[in-house]
Amino acid sequence: MSSSQRAAVDGFGSGLAAGRDHAASLGPFDKGVPQGISPVPLADVAAQGWNVLRGDLPLPAAVIREDALDINIQWMRAFVEDQGVALAPHGKTTMAPALFDRQLMDGAWGITLSTPHQVATAITLGYDRIFIANQVIGRSAIRYLFDAIENNPKLELFCLIDSIALIEQIEAIAAQAGTTRRLQVLVEKGFVGGRTGCRTVAETVAVARRIARSPHLDLVGVEGFEGLIRGESLAATLDKIRQFLDEVVAVARCCDDEDLFGEGSVLLSAGGSAFFDLVAERLKAADLSKPSTVLLRSGCYITHDAGMYAYAFKFLQERAPHLFDRGAPRPALEIWGYVQSRPEPNLAIVAVGKRDISYDQPPVPRYWYRPAQGDSAPASLGDGHRVDHLDDQHCYVIVPDGSPLAVGDMVGFGISHPCLTFDKWRVIHMVNEHYDVTGSLRTYF
């Protein structure tokens, strides 16, 4: 991050709007913003004096707890420093420049992205080290990457390749563009039944050899993604992940032995948000003749969650309890909605739906608040409250006998899988422990 970029970032309420965020206001077209208001610059949001619990915002609304966010960022920073690895958090999780900047200021190596739209957004906003954890396909996208690095000598782009067919397509487009800079690429190792990536070590090395001969590409590392690997049990899953990561290392060693890598530190990259401890352990053991950097790409750590990643972290704590000596990440992202109806004794309908919250796993009703009582803080909901299912705009919450929930009460939901909640909001509010709105951020999905 350059000094000018750092100067542009001064917390979530002020420098964000003045810096790289081009849509520097919120207004009546944004969900979760008071109706009928004139546009409010992001720099002025804190001065509005809004409070979620007081009912100043229409619900549903998405909020991020600043205290939990700080804990999560510090936890991950301590992890990467202790392990001697680097972090390029996956920006597709949030697509929020304010959070990218916070991650970079706290030591992130760069930002990871996935699609041409995401990459173009980041480049337009001034980010100059972008790891594209994907194959870049199509004339328009490939030409854009070469034009971008040609026109900006400071811009570093890294992308993935898993086939000779893609190499040939990239070379044809680069030759037509007349570019003078090479595109930095990592060869991708996959696994049978998985997503992209060469299926065997031999196939991966063969693609690496072809990259090394290309006049338009520079082989800078080896990449894999372990997050989708599953076994018949947790132990079997962990064994499969370790085996896969050892195959990534085997590819890197073959490339190192054949002197296929270009100049500079070799990148060895993997690491979603569930097994990054195993990635650090196995990839650090590569022991190449050239200097190497183990690059993790976890994105969901920044807000954590109350579902799939909370579950995964229970097993992470069992594997490596020392990582939690200084505490643990906390759910930071919440969606709040009103109880709209109590049509049956054990059912509450809350005005939150699939358009507001991720639903690949059910959200978790965690807190409730009755505005008329004016309490200082929300109360916890008991374990007997659970989400049965969601419609577009409605959440069916099963409640136990004696549940306090009544029409007009507020319910705060913890989410599962942050990626699929962030993309439903153009504006997300930052709040303190009292749910005062201290700023707002924009997303670019």
Q: What does this molecule look like?
A:
- With 445 residues, the chain is of the alpha/beta class.
- The chain has a domain at 67-324: Alanine racemase (TIM Barrel, Alpha-Beta Barrel), CATH 3.20.20.
- It has twelve helices and 20 strands.
- α6 (139-151) crosses α7, α8 (201-212) runs parallel beside α9 (234-257) and α9 runs parallel beside α10.
- The radius of gyration is 23 Å and the shape is globular.
End-to-end Cα distance: 22 Å
Mean pLDDT: 93
What's the name of the CATH homologous superfamily of the domain at 67-324? Alanine racemase
Strand content bin: 15-25%
- Largest beta-sheet characterization: 10 strands, mixed
Quaternary structure annotation = single chain
Q: State the total count of DSSP E strands.
A: 20
> Which parts are unreliable, with pLDDT below 50 for 5 consecutive residues or more?
1-19
What is the architecture of the domain at 67-324 at the second tier of CATH? Alpha-Beta Barrel
Structural class: alpha/beta
The shape is globular
Count of separate DSSP helical elements? 12
The CATH class of the domain at 67-324 is identified as: Alpha Beta
What CATH calls the topology of the domain at 67-324 is: TIM Barrel
